[in-house]
Amino acid sequence: MNHNLQIQKILLKVEDLKNFEDKIRVLKEAIQIADTHNDIEWGFDLRLNLIRQERNTSKCEDSFPAFAWLLNARDSDPDLFEESEFLWEYKWMVSSASRNTHISKEQILEISDDLKLRLERNGYTARAYHNVMTSWFLHIGDYEQARECVALADAEMVDDMANCPACELDTKVEIELLEGNMDHAIALAYDLIHHKLTCYSMPFQTFCCLCYYLVRVGDDRAQLYFDKAMEEYHKSDTYDTSVFFAMTILMYFMHKTQRDEMWEYFEKISEWEVGSEDVHRFNFALHMLPILSEGGSKKLNLSPKVSYYNVDGVYDLGLLREHYHQQAKELATRFDTRNGNQHFAARLAEFEQE
């Protein structure tokens, strides 16, 4: 069969698949066919498709090599592809780099600068670059620098590469919550709370963050935003593992408010951690520490994919806590060594006391 027909047949299969990991697996088969026939155009389109599919998961395993191929192909022959075709994906790759400890700080800053250069030479403003740098400073716990990046972004014109208005506002709300400005955060989130600004994961993630930070300081308003988050969650059938962090902090709220259904959510999202980005694995492990602190044993219906899977389904919660504690410590050390500060160690110490 002609390789073009083979690839087109695979793409039709991709459209029918519901699971993003299945889509990625099939796309990798198509990429192999394209590469075997040295078809650069198909190789480009298929890898771009793969990256877009993996964005909908908690992982970033195949996108790094796929994107490296895209950059090399474009830079080797600039006439083959328009650089603007993959700049949106480049934004995601830069942010993803900070979430994974095998990428050095020097590499992160280098590719951030490269993104800025490519945005400028394609006629875009620096707004998207400042969006990315805001995420970096939030990641390392430098909220003052994050605020400065938000201000720099706001000073630029909005263009097609900038984060959507809902995501930009959600970031501003998150900064206020992180610094304990609860009333201001709620007021700032008005357009998200009232659905004047929405996108794929907003206002769901905004409601999750509001209920999480409020419950952490014992603010009764947390219940209101938990209810709103669950309303958003139940009316959508499209949420996937890309909302792993949001589901993690919702589960933490359920623990703090002693909701039995918390274990149902643990059974579901514990599998999402397998192969996920390092920051997701850290956050999940971190929030499991207080959840598992009472010990005892529990019957759980967990996926065989989790490393501590038991055939009989009975789990020692104390041993589980030790597992997650060790995971959180290892990842905190790796992040802090890479980032050059103690932000992750400080977060871990806080949760160790709960």
Could you provide a short overview of the structure?
This protein has helices spanning 3-16, 20-36, 40-54, 63-76, 87-98, 105-121, 127-139, 143-154, 165-178, 182-188, 190-193, 204-216, 222-234, 244-256, 262-269, 278-291, 317-339, 343-352; strands at 297-299, 314-316.
Explain this structure to me?
The protein is built from 18 helices and two strands. The longest helix is centred in the C-terminal third of the chain and has 23 residues, at 317-339. Helix 5 runs parallel beside helix 7, helix 6 runs antiparallel to helix 7 and helix 17 (317-339) packs antiparallel against helix 18 (343-352). Strands 1-2 form a two-stranded antiparallel sheet. By secondary structure, it is mostly helical. 66% of the residues lie in helices and 2% in strands. Among the domains are: 164-239, no CATH class; 252-354, no CATH class. It has helices spanning 3-16, 20-36, 40-54, 63-76, 87-98, 105-121, 127-139, 143-154, 165-178, 182-188, 190-193, 204-216, 222-234, 244-256, 262-269, 278-291, 317-339, 343-352, and strands at 297-299, 314-316.
